[in-house]
């Protein structure tokens, strides 16, 4: 079963705008990861944030982690049409198991 | 590096037939994972291996499913006999476990249709 829930399920924005996706998880974690999946393709690892970190940046991506609320957010700044994809958070808990959320479908329109 | 390689990309089979999915992980990675993705259940971890040894197969849905990793460069997921509800995209992923901080590299998946 899916451990994480993501919000929103779908998001449509205009190119150049920022996109924010949220994720909640249920158990304690070692780290939390975000992945992107283009239609019909495999998942691509975007960024990893450790449980003792609160914020991390990578290019146009900014990830925050609040372990007290068991939540994380992914911000994509200055979005592009090529960012259109599904985005998944994944929590790494005990036993080396990565559990994925339900995903957010992002559509960036020209 | 060619990444994680899965074969076949697509498989259509009749109910009751045996299906074998194959995966070649990234050279040097020491962990391998099999996931299944459906619209209804999302991404589910079926089984994972560490250093070729199955560590957790609690996600394998039934005895009809079995997975092997005979060496560090090859793994199979077998379904026998297959059923229509097994239709899904099956992903293999590999990772190098270092101090608990690592990302997974996924293959392109095998889309299985059981009719």
The radius of gyration computed from the alpha-carbon positions of chain A, rounded to a whole number of angstroms, is 13 Å
User: Over the alpha carbons, how many angstroms does the gyration radius of chain B reach?
Assistant: 13 Å
Main beta sheet of chain B: strand number and arrangement? 7 strands, mixed
Low-confidence stretches of chain A: none
Rough shape of chain B?
Answer: globular
Please summarize what this structure is.
Chain A has 110 residues and is mostly beta strands. Chain A contains no helices and eleven strands. Chain A is 0% helix and 56% strand.
Strand-helix topology:
The complex is a heterodimer of chains A (110) and B (115).
Chain A: E1 5-7, E2 10-14, E3 19-24, E4 31-37, E5 43-50, E6 55-58, E7 61-66, E8 71-76, E9 85-92, E10 98-100, E11 104-109
Parallel strand pairs in A: 2-11
Antiparallel strand pairs in A: 1-3, 3-8, 4-5, 4-9, 6-7, 7-8, 9-10, 9-11
Chain B: E1 5-7, E2 10-13, E3 19-24, E4 31-38, E5 42-50, E6 53-56, E7 65-71, E8 74-79, E9 88-95, E10 105-106, E11 110-114
Parallel strand pairs in B: 2-11
Antiparallel strand pairs in B: 1-3, 3-8, 4-5, 4-9, 5-6, 7-8, 9-10, 9-11
List keywords for this structure.
heterodimer, A: 110 residues, mainly beta, six-stranded mixed β-sheet, 11 strands, 56% strand, globular, B: 115 residues, seven-stranded mixed β-sheet, four-stranded antiparallel β-sheet, 0% helix
How would you describe this protein?
The complex is a heterodimer of chains A (110) and B (115). Chain A has strands spanning 5-7, 10-14, 19-24, 31-37, 43-50, 55-58, 61-66, 71-76, 85-92, 98-100, 104-109. In chain A, strands 2, 4, 5, 9, 10 and 11 form a six-stranded mixed β-sheet that branches. A five-stranded antiparallel β-sheet of chain A has the order 1-3-8-7-6, with no helix packed on it. Chain A is globular. In chain A, 0% of the residues lie in helices and 56% in strands. Chain A starts with a strand and ends with a strand. Chain A has no helices and eleven strands. With 110 residues, chain A is mainly β. With 115 residues, chain B is mainly β. Chain B is built from no helices and eleven strands. In chain B, the strands form two sheets. In chain B, strands 2, 4, 5, 6, 9, 10 and 11 form a seven-stranded mixed β-sheet that branches. A four-stranded antiparallel β-sheet of chain B has the order 1-3-8-7, with no helix packed on it. In chain B, a hairpin with a 2-residue loop joins strand 5 (42-50) and strand 6. The model of chain B has no long low-confidence stretch (mean pLDDT 93). Chain A binds chain B through residues 1-2, 30-31, 33, 35, 41-45, 48, 50, 88, 92, 95-103, and chain B through 4, 31, 33, 35, 41-45, 48, 50, 55-56, 91, 93, 97, 100-109.
């Amino acid at each position: 079963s899916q451990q994480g829930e993501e919000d929103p399920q779908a998001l449509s924005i205009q190119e150049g705008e920022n996109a924010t996706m949220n994720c909640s998880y249920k158990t304690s974690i070692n780290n939390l990861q975000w992945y992107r999946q283009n239609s019909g393709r495999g998942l691509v690892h975007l960024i990893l944030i450790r449980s003792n970190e609160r914020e991390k940046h990578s290019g146009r991506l900014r990830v925050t982690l609040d372990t007290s609320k068991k939540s994380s957010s992914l911000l994509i700044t200055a979005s592009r049409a090529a960012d259109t994809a599904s985005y998944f958070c994944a929590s790494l808990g005990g036993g080396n198991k990565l559990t994925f959320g339900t995903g957010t479908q992002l559509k960036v329109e020209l | 590096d060619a990444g994680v390689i899965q074969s076949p990309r697509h498989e259509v089979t009749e109910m009751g037939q045996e299906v074998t999915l194959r995966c070649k992980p990234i050279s040097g990675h020491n962990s391998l994972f099999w996931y299944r993705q459906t619209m209804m259940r999302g991404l589910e971890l079926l089984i994972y291996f560490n250093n070729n040894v199955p560590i957790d197969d609690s996600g394998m849905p039934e005895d009809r499913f079995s997975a092997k990793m005979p060496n560090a460069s090859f793994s199979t997921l077998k379904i026998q006999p297959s059923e229509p509800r097994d239709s899904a995209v099956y992903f293999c992923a590999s990772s190098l476990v270092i101090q608990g901080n690592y990302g997974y590299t996924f293959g392109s998946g095998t889309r299985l249709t059981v009719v």
